[in-house]
Amino acid sequence: MMFLASVSNLEASEHQCLRSQVSFAKDVDKMEIGDPLDTFLEKVVRVNSVTRKHEADQPLAGISVLFVHHLTRECLGTVQALRKLGCKDIRCQFLGYNADAAKVFGPFLAEVPDAELKAYKLAEGEDGSYSIDRAFTKPSDALPADALDEAMKGKDYLTCQRSLASFLSMGMLASCETSEPPLKMIVIEDGGYMAPLLNDSALREQSLASFRKENSVAEDKDTDGKLASFSDMGELVQKHLGGTVEHTRNGYDKVQKVYLKHGKLARPCFTIAISYVKTQFEALSVADTCINSLTNALFSHGRNLRARDVCVIGSRGNIGGRCIKALSNRLNGTTTQIVGVDLKVGFTSSEPRPVWEPSPYNSVEDCLLESRKFSDLPVETRKKTDVIFGITGGRQQKADGSWDETLVPKDIDFWLTEGESKYNELWLVSGSTKTKEFELVKSFVEGIVEEGQYGEYTVVSENLVDSLTQRDYGQIYTFTSSCGKVKTLISVTDWKPANFMFYGVPTEDIDIILAQLVDVSVRLVNNLDANNQVHAVDYDPVATNGIIEAKVDPLKDEVMVPSPPDTQAAQDSLMTIW
Questions:
Q1: 507-525 and 45-55 are packed helices; what angle lies between their axes, rounded to 10 degrees?
Q2: Mean pLDDT (whole number) for 290-311
Q3: How many Å apart are CA 385 and CA 419, to the nearest integer?
């Protein structure tokens, strides 16, 4: 079968993008391919090696998998690994920041039998609303799209993604109940979409109807009929959810907060989120890809990186610190053009750390100065800043309920009234999760645009489009004063993570991360009776020993996992050094 014939209707430029993305040989169009996803698995060599290690045992036979992750070639290779390991029921909810991905990869997914793999994705409207991407959904009649759209109406990104994931989870749990013999379901996800909800609802013994209402889940009478014998989510989760696997620190924090709230989880969660390769190795590539995306966005607007004055919020984080290090070699004035902002400035922590983890409370050497908040930086520094990198995960709620923000509307007011940045421009770049990094500023600016006026300024927005390639790099918000002075605020990638503008983390690096994700997923399935807590690679022997690229193997004793930063435990561990 000539598989690639199915994508011959793509425009020439899109077909070229596909060739680049999949990295086929020059004669890709002449290749005879068996399973359409095999090529993707072959490209992630480490994932493939883990697959071969476990394939003979077929550990995922009898397991249904909800895979919530990004739509990339490497993730398609990971999906194929799960299939090779015996999984015959995979529901993929793809998270998309790259507009080209669905066009590039959709045709490959369409070739896989619907009974074995179903795929879903949300589409974002120009007004910022979310709906089911009907053109991408596989099979096309798999969802009550209109009902789901109605349930998501007016909701934010996270709520909408969770609405879809919850709908899929309920359907999968119902299928587990009616299967002969009954199946187990696991969730493998990037960002804590479902695991926190399933664990918390189970431990609260929440009714199924209440779970649907609380999480904006569309009504599904067929599923509810199959689950009618279950009195609450706790009973359902205990019977059919084997456990969960988490990829990211953001998701880990959400799950661990459920554990701290209840003193346990409903089902075990295995995670790579705080492993050595995830926190120390991958951070280098994420920093590089963020800077690459900013560089391309600047070029599209006729600007260059070396002339910018940069503030990195999250300067003491794994990614932020490496971002500063990389920038120090790219800017004209090296360290004199970089400042850092981090809530850890002035503090240390009594929480234990693995022997391999450097202290995130050490000062950063490659920048001019650091402060705890952007507004604490010297006035002259803030005046000339024209790029702000946010790599924190967004605003942090403190244990007392108040919030530590990254940027606030008052900072934008300062830039409008006193800012002296080059070309009167301010570039905002997120290197963290979803659209959370500059949440208050995003809401503030979008509200201003809707009104069309802010004080003496008229305000309009337009896409940041490269005139040569017509690629969209983000949003330009233009402020024009009554006396004709113009200032422009530019949001790279429309407030979303810049590292996903192109390829995410390069294949040779993300390959190692995803290999560890697959390996630990098999470890979960082989240990469904593990304690109902977080089992982290490089912290817990059951999640570490024998796992690919584990830092300490064998690990004899369990290491205490870190507290989410917005918990009382994390606050209690802080000690001032000023």
A1: 20
A2: 96
A3: 8
With 90 as the cut, is the pLDDT of residue 277 above it?
yes
pLDDT greater than 90 at residue 310 = yes
How buried is 202 (Cβ within 10 angstroms: 0-12 exposed, 13-18 middle, 19+ buried)?
A: buried
Please count the other Cβ atoms lying within 10 Å of the Cβ belonging to residue 204.
Answer: 17
Which residues on adjacent β-strands are paired with residue 92? 67, 119
Q: What is the mean pLDDT of residues 107-114?
A: 94
442 CA to centre of own chain: 18
Query: Residue with structure tokens 């002449």?
Result: 30
Q: Give me the pLDDT at residue 19, please.
A: 40
Residue 387 near residue 427 (C-beta atoms within 8 A) = yes
Q: ∠ CA 546-548-554 to the nearest 5 degrees?
A: 35
Model pLDDT for residues 61-93, shown as the tens digit of each residue = 999 999 999 999 999 999 999 999 999 999 999
Any idea of the CA torsion for 249, 382, 496, 252, to the nearest 10 degrees? 10
**Which pairs count as long-range contacts for 456-461, CB under 8 Å and 24+ apart, including other chains?**
456/481, 456/482, 456/483, 457/416, 457/481, 457/482, 457/487
Mean pLDDT of the chain, nearest integer: 91
Contact assessment for residue 318 and residue 280, using Cβ atoms and an 8 Å cutoff: yes
Convert 511-522 to b/e letters by CB count within 10 Å (16 or more is b): bbbbbbbbbbbb
Exposed, middle or buried: residue 222 (CB in 10 Å: 0-12, 13-18, 19+)? exposed
- What is the pLDDT at residue 190? 96
Encoded tokens for 574:
């802080």
Sign of the alpha-carbon dihedral angle for 366, 371, 374, 375: negative
**Cα–Cα distances in angstroms (integers) from residue 104 to residues 25, 69, 99, 107, in the given order:** 17, 16, 9, 7
Query: Do 77 and 173 meet the contact criterion of CB atoms below 8 Å apart?
Result: no
Name the helix (H) or strand (E) containing 42: helix 38-43
Q: Based on the number of CB atoms within 10 Å of its own CB, is 116 exposed (0-12), middle (13-18) or buried (19 or more)?
A: exposed
Look-up of token digits 């369409």: 110
Tokens of residue 322, six digits? 């490496």
Number of Cβ atoms within 10 Å of the Cβ of 529: 9
Is 26 exposed, middle or buried, given 0-12, 13-18 or 19+ CB atoms closer than 10 A?
exposed
The residues near 422 (Cβ < 8 Å, ≥ 6 apart) are 307, 308, 309, 384, 386
**Within 10 A of 38 (CB to CB), how many other CB atoms are there?**
15
Q: Give the burial string for 339-377 (b: 16+ CB within 10 Å, else e).
A: bbbbbbbebebeeeebeebeebbeebebbbbbbebbeeb
How high is the pLDDT of residue 4?
Answer: 32
Using the predicted structure, report yes or no on whether residue 95 has a pLDDT greater than 80. yes
Specify the pLDDT at position 578.
Answer: 57
Report the SS3 class of residue 97: coil
